[in-house]
Amino acid sequence: MGRFVFLDRDGTINDDPGYVYRVEDYALLAGVVDALVALRDGGYRFAIVTNQSGIGRGLYTLDDFWRYQNHLLADLRARGIEIEATYVCPHQLADACACRKPSPLHLFRARDELGADLAASWVIGDHVSDVELGVRAGARSILVRTGHGEEERLRLGSGAGHPVVDDLRAAARYVLSAETSR
Known about the structure:
Blueprint: E1 4-7, H1 32-41, E2 45-51, H2 53-56, H3 62-78, E3 83-89, H4 105-114, E4 122-125, H5 128-137, E5 140-144, H6 149-156, E6 164-165, H7 168-180
Helix pairs in contact: 1-7
């Protein structure tokens, strides 16, 4: 069983101007590569878990999503970072599907397909649904203030014991310090 960091994509790893799917709009957020390298060197593996309601709304296609996603994966791979899997929900909230975060379906798939030890893993993202995903799957969660994180922090209320940090770099420091204090 492996320790994973399950990453939200838009607003956590890359810039999120809204409905991200065009390769020409691709931009990693500051510090993302350093954060992922530190986590990788700390023994973590990676998967992306992302809601993409723009597909269900007809704003872009699943092929558009994968074109952007493959560009992101290739860029990270060129920097020494391997994302082992991408789990995507293409549905709208109104579709009431089983795969939309905060449903733990994708994390359970990662447990079964990748050997993820959910109790030793983290979910990092810029929405309350990312925090709830971790809770529902038995992992720990961190909310980042990038992307929609600042407004989502207000929805989180007191935080219910979940850390809220500035960005992925701060999240990596938190994860690694939590591991050394165990």
